[in-house]
Amino acid sequence: MTTNIVIETTRGNAVESRHLAHVAVCDAAGATVLACGESERSVFPRSAIKVFQAIPLIETGAADAMGLDNGDLSLACASHSGEAGHVARAAAVLAKAGLAEAHLECGCHWPFEQRVALELARRGEEPGPLHNNCSGKHAGFLCTAVHEGEDPSGYVAAEHPVQRRVRDVLADLTRTRPGEDEPAGIDGCSIPTYAAPLHRFAEGFARLAAGHDVDAARAAAGQRLMKACMAEPWLMAGTRRACVTLMEAAPGRVFAKTGAEGVFCGAVPELGLGFALKIDDGATRASEAAVAAVLSRTLRPHDAALADRYEALSHTTLRNWQGTAVGEVRAVGF
Questions:
Q1: Which domain range does residue 52 map to?
Q2: What is the pLDDT of residue 1?
Q3: Cα 80 vs. chain centroid, distance in angstroms?
Q4: Parallel, antiparallel, or unpaired: how do β-strands 2-3 and 32-36 relate?
Q5: Number of folded domains in the chain?
Q6: CB-CB neighbours of 94 under 10 Å
């Protein structure tokens, strides 16, 4: 089914801005259940596919050998807010591999959580690599390298064994040739990022969720990671983050992961469906409204009450600095 979805931002009774969404919802056989805009357009998935990137952590046996629990695995799939719990957990995972913050090659930035950033600045401190929203994923990469007896130095490079394993997983789940059929680039945390048609990412999540048309061990690894994120959503994101809100709306039933530039990917495991979306102008506020609307539409034939819950999340009241309601962000035409 093809439809259109636009995210509107209003002020008073007027529409002030509009954001176009491209969406694909697919089943494990590759059939399109729902399409919006250009569902076959090529996009960089950014952090929305961190589950794919963490699969080698499970497949190599590194996660079990180092005793990683659900919280550690959720952090390995995280774009976290750099809060104290995230930083401490990432440091603990590195310690299990006999490594430390200095081994991270993700760079550093101020925590997404403003309160934490202000506290750092107030103490006269600056953020380090552990505050990077991708430090958990990179800690997972390093665990895999150590477990496999590889030199962890340069693990972000495209031809390092760590990234070759990630590329192989991506090729398998999306049925593409990363870096050959579509553009390739470097992500914000310095690892390679590979573009592919939007619906291919949706299909990949559906294959993992359904355990169909994919190696059983790989499906089990992906399912384990998604279950860990659903069990420990705060570690995958942070305080007041949309990913947490979306997963806590249906505990254990919906997996959703954001990515930079208006991307969201995820799955509804009980239905064997995967989804992927991209906002044309890269607006995060629009992607958060769009993913709630997509989940509402996808779930409505199966659970009307849950669909209503996501429908409510697709509308956000905008308030000014005085706290006065001035408009809203809403999904329309869907």
A1: 2-332
A2: 47
A3: 10
A4: parallel
A5: 1
A6: 25
Amino acid at 200: R
φ/ψ of residue 299, rounded to 5: -85, -20
Mean pLDDT value across residues 309-319: 96
Amino acid at 85: G
In which region does residue 228 sit, left (phi positive, over 0), alpha (psi from -120 to 50) or beta (all else)?
alpha
Nearest to 290 by CA among 320, 319, 266, 273: 266
Tokens of 270: 């009980």
The length of the chain, given as a count of residues = 334
What is d(CA 33, CA 276) in angstroms, rounded to the nearest whole number? 12
pLDDT score, position 4: 74
* 3-state SS, one letter per residue, for the chain: CEECCEEEEEECCEEEEEEEEEEEEEECCCCEEEEECCCCCEECCHHHHHHHHHHHHHHCCHHHHCCCCHHHHHHHCCCCCCCHHHHHHHHHHHHHCCCCHHHCCCCCCCCCCHHHHHHHHHCCCCCCHHHCCCHHHHHHHHHHHHHCCCCCCCCCCCCCHHHHHHHHHHHHHHCCCCCCCCCEEECCCCCEEECEEHHHHHHHHHHHHHCCCCCHHHHHHHHHHHHHHHHCHHHHCCCCCHHHHHHHCCCCCCEEEEECCCEEEEEEHHHCEEEEEEECCCCHHHHHHHHHHHHHHHHCCCCHHHHHHHHHHCEEEEECCCCCEEEEEEEECC
Q: Which residue has the tokens 């990469």?
A: 141
What pLDDT digit, counting tens, does each position of 223-240 carry?
999 999 999 999 999 999
**Which tokens belong to 41?**
């357009």
Whether the per-residue pLDDT at 78 is higher than 50: the answer is yes
Q: What's 201's domain CATH number? A: 3.40.710
- Measured torsion, CA atoms of residues 31, 37, 38, 40, in degrees rounded to the nearest 10: -20
Query: Which pLDDT tens digit goes with each residue over 161-193?
Result: 999 999 999 999 999 999 998 999 999 999 999
Amino acid present at 127: P
Q: What is the pLDDT of residues 294-312, one digit of tens each?
A: 999 999 999 999 999 999 9
